[in-house]
Write a structure and sequence with these properties.
alpha+beta; 7 strands; 127 residues
Length: 127
């Protein structure tokens, strides 16, 4: 009889694991991928790009740009508002960066002199 209850416990654990995996896959399937700036890519005057889009935690932003003239830096609200990248900020330089959004406010700027001030920055709120 003890062997039977052990089998039942293993079956229940396996079922629970299968359900958890289905939930995780369903959540991953819901994640969207957005190319920042659409066909124009990561460039100047980006403020309106986020309008009309609904972002969720786990969505992926793809930043496409020429790495010889631009970059992407994940910053705080202060860095976004002041167009500054404090030491230790995560800087991306591949020209084809994929960044997964965290829940809440996500801020990105180009830290090349004058670029952020010319509108090369976005603020994304992910639900």
């Amino acid at each position: 009889m003890a062997q039977g209850s052990g089998s039942a416990s293993r079956a229940t654990a396996a079922l629970g694991l299968a359900l958890l995996l289905c939930l995780l896959l369903a959540h991953a399937a819901e994640a969207a991928t957005y190319t920042v700036g659409d066909s124009g890519g990561w460039t100047f005057n980006m403020a309106s790009w986020t309008r009309g889009k609904r972002f969720r935690a786990g969505d992926v932003l793809v930043f496409r740009y020429s790495p010889s003239v631009h970059n992407v830096v994940a910053v705080s609200a202060a860095g976004y508002n002041g167009c500054s990248a404090p030491g230790g900020s995560r800087t991306y330089t591949s020209g084809n960066d994929r960044i997964t959004l965290a829940r809440g406010n996500n801020y990105f700027i180009c830290s090349i002199a004058g670029h952020c001030q010319a509108g090369m920055k976005i603020a994304v709120v992910a639900a």
